[in-house]
Amino acid sequence: MSWSKEYEIGVPEIDSQHMKIVDYINELYIAFMNKTHVEKLSQIIDGLKNYSQQHFTYEEMLFQQYSYALTKEHKKEHDLFIEKINEFSDSYKRNPNTLTFQVLYFLQKWLIDHIAQSDKKYVAQLFK
What we know:
The chain is an all-alpha fold. Helices cover 80% and strands 0% of the residues.
């Protein structure tokens, strides 16, 4: 998967953080093709935990700084992302062999639904 202009929100620091999701998708896909995805998945889930903590903290700081009207709704989306990553972590401990495509699908959907739509909404309001 390649980074696309449709995912850009126009804030370079945030766009570079978002690119990490594409990196995770590609790492996991390559690992799947090389039959090393079970081992790689653990690293990616851990990486997503760290990523979400750092990235969401940054975005939510901007929301507060600029008094973003939809902060509560947007933060709920962040919380759902974290919840899903935690579910993946728990599932990995039980049966890592069936998780790869679920994680890939979730991350691709996050790019399309959250980054390309929800994040663009706050940028349009905060950085007019």
